[in-house]
Amino acid sequence: MGQIHLELFATLDLVGQGPGGPEEDPSDGFAFGGWQAPLMDDVAGAQVQASYEGTDALLLGRRTYDIFAAYWPHQSDPFAELFNAVPKYVASRGTPDLSWAGSTQLGADLPAAIREVRERHEVVKVVGSLGLVQTLLGEKLFDELHLWLHPLMLGQGRKVFADGAVPTNLRLLEPPVAAPTGSVLLRYGLVEGTPGTGDMTAG
């Protein structure tokens, strides 16, 4: 069985909406599209690139898929080569245009379909796709969570951890690494069980 990795970019107040550009996701009047761009540097760029090594499939929500399908087939950098070559699995209740080569729509039973995808691939990356992420968090249907935290707060926008998460244990896979602009990469692995509790006042 392969692994599913969540690749997530968030502000300190855990907004994950529209990091890449002004037109990426302006839904609900979101005014800060492209908030990540001023904070990217060589260190963060290298972290992102390294995180995709070994990827052999993408798992995307409909909105993210449409953005990627309109952009990556027309690019020629290493990310474009990877994204254009690997299979793309799309979670959508509608009828998306699947003209991007290698694209497949997942079935109505989303958790079952994603488990089948994990059986077929070594490393499946979930990029953006915040609605899909909530489903995966709720089902504990992921193996690693890679979270880039950025030093700003927006006070509006869709959150990385909204209403889909359930009580979950995670373990830090490596020491956090900070980029010069202040963004920090946190890599966690899923751990079985639910969070324990205790009493800090107990002697």
Task: Give the secondary structure arrangement, pairings included.
Layout: E1 3-11, H1 42-51, E2 57-61, H2 62-71, H3 78-85, E3 88-91, E4 103-105, H4 110-120, E5 123-127, H5 130-139, E6 144-150, E7 169-172, E8 177-178, E9 184-191
InterPro entries: DHFR-like_dom_sf, RibDG_C
GO molecular function, one term: 5-amino-6-(5-phosphoribosylamino)uracil reductase activity
Organism: Klenkia soli
Describe the model:
There is one protein chain. The protein has helices spanning 42-51, 62-71, 78-85, 110-120, 130-139, and strands spanning 3-11, 57-61, 88-91, 103-105, 123-127, 144-150, 169-172, 177-178, 184-191. With 203 residues, the protein is α/β, with parallel strands linked by helices. It has five helices and nine strands, in the order E-H-E-H-H-E-E-H-E-H-E-E-E-E. It starts with a strand and ends in a 12-residue tail after the last strand. Among the domains are: 14-41 and 135-175, no CATH class; 55-122, no CATH class. Strands 1, 2, 3, 4, 5, 6, 7, 8 and 9 form a nine-stranded mixed beta sheet that branches. The longest helix has 11 residues, at 110-120.
The N- and C-terminal alpha carbons lie at a distance of 45 Å
Taking Cα atoms only, what radius of gyration do you get, to the nearest Å? 17 Å
**Helices and strands, in N-to-C order?**
EHEHHEEHEHEEEE
Structural class category: alpha/beta
Helix content: 10-25%
Tally of helical runs: 5
Residue-averaged pLDDT:
93
Largest sheet: 9 strands, mixed
User: What is the count of β-strands?
Assistant: 9
Strand content is: 15-25%
pLDDT < 50 stretches: none
Query: Tell me, what's the shape?
Result: globular
